[in-house]
C-alpha cells in the first residue's frame, strides 16, 4: 500500500529515544561525579490492567536510563490515609526525587486530596495546582511541567517549528493535557484558542491554526478539510477502534484522520509513535531536573 | 453633540452600587445575628499618589458597607521582612478576613515573595498561584477570583448575556486581568482566544468575538471595524490621554474607540463608569465570602 503524503512525519519514537539517551548520559555523569542516583517513586492503587502496564513501562524506562524506581502497590480497597502515608514516606525519603500517583484512582478516593499530598518539590507530573498556577502566570515558573504537553512542545522544538506569533489551537481543556498545552503555547508567544465539547463549529477555528494540538480523545474528529494547508498537527489522542484484522480486535488511532491530514499538514505526528513515547521521556526528564534542583547540581 | 448609538450601555456604576447595597445588607444581617464584623486589611508601601488614592477609596467603600478596614502603611525604604511581618500579623488576626497588598511595590521588594506570604484563606485579591491554578483546573474551585475579571463576568451575568458556546476573545494576558478573565470565560463554557502584543493581525480574531474583553492598556486600540456586529464589549482599559479642554489636562479612555464601537456592538461598557467601579465592589464581595467561609455562615 502506498500513501500519498506531503507532510513531514514527526517521529516521536526517535525523538524520545534520543532524549532517553541524553538523560542516560546525564544520570551516569551525576552518579560518577557525586554518587547521587535519581529516584522515581510510583504509587499504584488497585489492579487495573492498563495502569499496571503503564507502571511497568515507567519502571522499565527508569532502569534503562539509570534512574532508581520505587513502587508502592496498594489494594483497591485501601483508604485515603493509607495512600497519603506512602506519599509522606516518599516525600521525606531523600533517595526519591519524583513521586507519581498512577491515575485513575478508585472511586472512593478523593483524587484532589491525594495529589495535593505530593510535595511540590517532587511533583514530577506537574499536576499540583501551585504548579499549574505558576504555569498560567507571567513572571512565574512552575517547578515541573505536565509530561504530555511538555512532550508536545519538545517535538515542536526539536523539529524547529516556530511558535512565536503563530495561531495555535488546542482541542481539549483537561487538567493533564489540553489546558497546560494551551498555557505552554501561550508562554511561547503563540496566540491560542481552546476548543472543547461546547464549541460551536470547531472547524472554523481549527482552520485558522498554524499549530494544532488535539487532545479530545475522539477518533477521526479532525478531518483533512478542517486544516489550514501547511499546518503543524500534534495528535495527542489515543483511541481504540474496532479492527477485526488486528489480532487484538482493535487498533489505536488519534483524533486526526491521519490519511486525509497528512496531505494537507506540513508536519504531523502519527498515532502510535508520535506524542505517546514522549510522555515517559518527559517524566524521566522531570525526574532528572528534580534531582538537579534538590542537590543544586549543574 | 449627539452620538448615534445602537448599543446598550452597560452601566457598571449602577450595577456596582446595587452590589454594594446587597453587601451592606448582608453585612448588617451577619452582624445582627452573630456579632461578627467582616474586616479587610490593606498594606500600602511607599507614598505613590495613585496608590494612596486607591487605598483611600477602598477604605471608604468598606466603611459604606460596614466592613471594618485595617491599614498598615510602610515607608518606601522598608524591608521585605517588615512587610511580611505585617502580613503575618494580619494572617493570624481573627478580625481580619481579607488581606490586600497594594501594587506596585517598590523596586527592591520581591512581589512574588510578598504575595505568597498572604494566607490563601484571606487572599481576597485572588492573586496567589494556588488560586490561579485552581481557577485554571477543571473540578477545582479557587477560594477567590481576582476582582477585575470577576467584575467583568458579573456585568455579563447581570445583563443576561449568554456565555456558553460563544466565541470570546480577551485582549491581554496579565496575571491580574487578561489571563484570569480568559479562564473565567472558559469555565463558563465560552470558546476563548487570547490576543497579546505578539499577536499578528489581531483584528482578524477580534472580529470573530461574540464577547470581547479588552485589557491591553492601549487607548483606541480596538476600532469599530474590528468588531462583529452585535458583539458585547467589556472595556477594562483605563488610559489617560492628553486633553487640553479638561481642567486636569487629560481624560480617561478605554482600549476601545467608544464612538465607533457603540454603533456596532450590541452592548458596551463605557470608560469611566464601566468595569472600573466593579473592581472595588468585587473586593467587598470577596471579603464577604471570606468571612462567611471562615465562620461557616450561610
Ligand atoms: N500520548 C499520551 O501520552 C497521552 C494521550 N492521552 C490521550 O489524549 C486524549 C485526551 O486525554 P485527556 O485530556 O485525558 O481527556 P479528557 O477526556 O479529560 O478531555 C478531553 C477534552 O476534549 C474535549 N472534547 C471531547 N470531545 C470533543 C469534541 N467532539 N470536540 C471538541 N472537544 C472535545 C473535552 O471537552 P469538555 O471539557 O467540554 O468536556 C475535554 O476538554 C485521549 O485520547 C487520551 O487517551 C492522554 C494522556 C497522555
Ligand atoms: N477597571 C479596572 O478596575 C482595572 C483596569 N485596569 C486597566 O486595564 C488595562 C490592562 O491592565 P493590566 O492587565 O494590568 O496591564 P498589563 O500591562 O499588565 O498587560 C497588558 C496586556 O495587554 C497586551 N497588549 C499590550 N499592547 C497590546 C496591543 N497593542 N495589542 C494586543 N495586546 C496588547 C500585553 O501583551 P504582552 O503580554 O505580550 O506584553 C499584556 O498581556 C490597563 O489600561 C489598566 O489601567 C487594570 C486593572 C483594574
Automatic annotation (TrEMBL), chains A, B:
Its UniProt entry gives the catalysed reaction(s) as: (6R)-5,10-methenyltetrahydrofolate + H2O = (6R)-10-formyltetrahydrofolate + H(+); (6R)-5,10-methylene-5,6,7,8-tetrahydrofolate + NADP(+) = (6R)-5,10-methenyltetrahydrofolate + NADPH
Question: Does the record's keyword annotation contain NADP?
Answer: yes
User: Which superkingdom heads the taxonomic lineage of this protein's source?
Assistant: Eukaryota
Q: Which residues form the Tetrahydrofolate dehydrogenase/cyclohydrolase NAD(P)-binding domain?
A: 146-293
Query: A Pfam family matched by this chain, by name?
Result: THF_DHG_CYH
Q: Which residues form the Tetrahydrofolate dehydrogenase/cyclohydrolase catalytic domain?
A: 10-125
Pathway linked to the protein? One-carbon metabolism; tetrahydrofolate interconversion
Protein name, UniProt field = Uncharacterized protein
The species this protein was found in: Dendrobium catenatum
